[in-house]
């Protein structure tokens, strides 16, 4: 034992990871983005919620799920008895990807190479938080976490496993609900999303 030496084989803490991620150049998305949007929530949260990537509002504020999709998630989670504040909330990709159209920045889907470059951070977060359950919201998170790119609509509302053997529950992304043009379908799909979040809460109890 050598007193005074840093314990550099200890797992990095979340604040350390977030600081390191702010200097990430593993893929080209860091350049046009305003800042990294790292995960946030309790360091030992029982639940880790994973979305796709930050949007315009998240890019500006530096916090995950604060825009329209995040507000819908908060609302439905509250209805389902799931407390967002108890969850560690993050994204599969940690920089906003967009094309500029006049004054608007239009969200672009991350490429497979960007998702796989960013998976390094997601796996660091998984090891650090060590949640009992992971909630994948949408196809990007599901693919990144499981390695299986099969369609999400056949896999939703069910338990799977992450690459490293953790329990993972599958649901749709709240943005999918916001985009549904048909009001009846939006209502029924939102109800199913609410049921999924209730299941997640039950699994945690
Ligand atoms: N959509 C996501 O997937 N993540 C966010 O943080 C915001 C919107």
Automatic annotation (TrEMBL):
The chain holds residues 276 to 480 of 484 of the full protein. This is Type-4 uracil-DNA glycosylase. Residues 38-198 form the Uracil-DNA glycosylase-like domain. Belongs to the uracil-DNA glycosylase (UDG) superfamily. Type 4 (UDGa) family. Transmembrane segments: none annotated. It comes from Jannaschia seosinensis.
